[in-house]
Structures are given as C-alpha cells and as structure tokens.
Amino acid sequence: MKILDIGEIAAQSGVPPSTLRYYEEQGLIAPIGRKGLRRQYGPQTLLRLTLISMGKAAGFSLPEIAQMLGADGRPDLPRDELHARADDLGRQIRRLQLLQETLRHVADCPAPSHLDCPSFQKLMRQAERTAAWGGKHATR
Asked: Is 74 part of any domain?
C-alpha cells in the first residue's frame, strides 16, 4: 500500500490541504498516521475525494456525503435519494438547454425586435410553461 502525505494527496486530487484538514474534521477522510507533522493517507483517500467531489457536484451537503460514505469506509448509498437527485438534475439540464437555445436565438435572430419574432415568442411560452429560469415563481 502506497502511503501519500497531505501534499501528495493535494497535488493529485486538486484539493487544497486546508480543505483536506476540514474534510478530516467533518469525518469525510481520515489519515492513517503522521510523518513528523505531515498527515499520511492511504490511496483509498483519492477515491473518497472523488466521491466527495461527485456528491458536491450533485448538490449533496457534506453531512449527507459523510453519511453516504460511511464511517467504516464502505459506501451506503441511498438509492431513492440518488434517483430523486438525478431527476432534479435532469430537470435542471432541460431548463439550461432551453435557456441556451433562447440565448443563441436572441444572439442570431435577424428580426428587428425579438418580441415580434415568432420563434422567440415560442421559446418564451416554453419557458413560461416550465418556469425554466428557476426564479421565485418556478415550481417543481
């Protein structure tokens, strides 16, 4: 087993040492020892950091991620929550795609006024139906 110090873990993962120490305080990772003042980690820490990063990107909080990772290092993934989060991400992706399409249309539309453009009006109706912009009136 290759032992990595905090600097090597930081370099390989892109996670700053201060964040690694914070993750340790939160119970997300654990060193296997020290060499002088430097924390030492096992190679499985890189995998845990990848899982933490994925969880954060999916919108899970650090306490939720800690619970999923489990104290014993064996993930305990709540499949129903993961499905719900994937559904939320799918809705967000669709809203962003509509926004992208609308912005591209506005940028390229030859009409003198976008409000007179039938294509733009259609995009606006779609946005209204789906509450696409995620504002305070958006519903789920």
From this structure: no
